C-alpha cells in the first residue's frame, strides 16, 4: 500500500501448477515440468489503480 500509494481491500492467492513439457532429444523423449508459482489477486479501493507504465 505504501509503495504504490493505494488502499487494498482484499488479497487472494492462487498456487498455479507448472505445465508439463516434453523434449525430443537424440536419446529419446525427456519429460519435465515448468516451475510452479504463486499468483496474488489484489483488490483495490474503488477508483484507485496502480500505474505500472508511468516510469517508462
Question: Can you offer a commentary on this structure?
Answer:
The chain has a domain at 8-44. It contains no helices and four strands. It has strands at residues 8-16, 20-25, 28-33, 37-44. The chain has a two-stranded antiparallel sheet with strand order 1-4. Strand 2 (20-25) and strand 3 (28-33) form a beta hairpin. 0% of the residues are buried.
The SSE order reads EEEE
Number of strands: 4
> What's the alpha carbon Rg, rounded to whole Å?
19 Å
Global mean pLDDT: 92
Which structural class matches the secondary elements? mainly beta
Shape: elongated
Number of helices: 0
Q: How are the strands of the largest sheet arranged?
A: 1-4
Q: Work out the strand percent.
A: over 45%
Features:
56 residues, mainly beta, two-stranded antiparallel sheet, 4 strands, elongated
